[in-house]
Amino acid sequence: DFTMTLYLRHYWKDERLSFPSTTNKSMTFDGRLVKKIWVPDVFFVHSKRSFIHDTTTDNIMLRVFPDGHVLYSMRITVTAMCNMDFSHFPLDSQTCSLELESYAYTDEDLMLYWKNGNESLKTDEKISLSQFLIQKFHTTSRLAFYSSTGWYNRLYINFTLRRHIFFFLLQTYFPATLMVMLSWVSFWIDRRAVPARVSLGITTVLTMSTIITGVNASMPRVSYIKAVDIYLWVSFVFVFLSVLEYAAVNYLTTVQERKERKLRERFPCACGITHSKTMMLDGNYSESDANSLAGYTRNQMVSEEEKQEKMVVHLAMSNESNSSRKRGLKGHVGLRIIQNTHAIDKYSRLIFPGTYIFFNLIYWSVFS
Fold first, then answer.
1. Please, which of 70, 154, 302, 360 could form a disulfide with 144 given CB 3.0 to 4.6 Å?
2. Strand positions, DSSP E, the chain
3. Which residues span the membrane (predicted)?
């Protein structure tokens, strides 16, 4: 609904009120005379609440001219219904109308029309609304039919409202977009950092749920999908898919490592080196840790430069001399880098942003 305060002015001619006068151009009266003469019985169609202002007295004015012309003015505040369509909310424009009609007199008894067409409707240039921009006012008129009483003249005050989008950009669209972009950070985090990636995904999902709940709480309960619902739910799907993406990465990594473990158990001497020992070094060990390894002497350790390499390697070392060991390492050491990034993460870094940008292009081109 909408609420409007207006000055409603009626013009008509009643020869019974004419009077001869050479000095007075008109005579003005207050609301007390209105009850003693005939006035149009105009009411507001589809109004919910309306009242005539009465501070400090009734805001009613009656002006009678010597030839019988009458000006009847009153100050009214009316709340009327407007059939709004929220399918494009908040990128929507609403067209509302205030309808005036005689309650008792049909078109055969009383003819209502706008005195000067669109010029009959004048608005304050300082009118501004917090959510809407008033684009235009215009007037129309046509007949309304009631099956039991007949045809009536009906006047329309039509106006178009366009919603301000900046508020919703700050409160809805920007936070939702930032949450989607935040969920993409997971693709650059090490796949073995389970707490970091899981907590990031759950946080973004819960935040998107909060945004959706807050927007729907301030909206009418409509049975169709709004434009903001499409954007928020698509953003929610992107955030949710980022969580599922890590679940897939973690599962495939576990399966891969399980297969490799079975292969090592089945072929323990696949290195091709006789009387060799195999140890696992991750590059993050101290000098004392290296000396305390059972079955290995200090001379069997790798060089200091090789210690600094931040990767997991399989080193096969025999009991030969240092020079022959180095040649054996070059020719026979099995070296395999376990990547910190899964192939799914690499593709996701391109697919997720590209798809979301494509969705935004389509969304804003359609609804704006």
1. 154
2. 2-13, 27-29, 42-45, 47-52, 60-64, 69-80, 93-102, 132-146, 150-163, 277-281, 313-317
3. 165-186, 198-218, 230-252, 350-367
- pLDDT at residue 115 tops 60: yes
Q: Which residue has the tokens 């920007």?
A: 174
Sign of CA dihedral 313, 316, 322, 328: negative
Q: What pLDDT is recorded for position 340?
A: 55
Residue range 44-54: mean pLDDT, rounded:
93
- Strand-pairing partners, residue 80, are 2, 47
- The CA distance from 72 to 46, in Å, is 23
Q: Does residue 125 fall inside a structural domain?
A: yes
Q: Are residues 206 and 131 in the same domain?
A: no
**Vertex 310: Cα angle to 190 and 340 (nearest 5):** 25
14 is written with which tokens? 């009643």
Which of 173, 150, 160, 191 shows the shortest CA–CA distance to 228? 173
Residue bearing tokens 């991750």: 282
d(CA 315, CA 298) in angstroms, rounded, equals 15
Report whether 284 contacts 248 (CB < 8 A).
no
Q: How far apart are CA 167 and CA 360, in angstroms?
A: 18
Q: Tell me the two tokens of residue 89.
A: 């909310």
The Cα–Cα gap between 42 and 105 comes to 9
- The pLDDT, as a whole number, for residue 268 is 66
**280: pLDDT strictly greater than 50:** no
- 174 and 148 in one domain? no
Range of 91's domain? 2-163
Tell me what percent of the residues of the chain surpass a pLDDT of 90: 52
How many angstroms separate the CA atoms of 74 and 218, rounded?
35
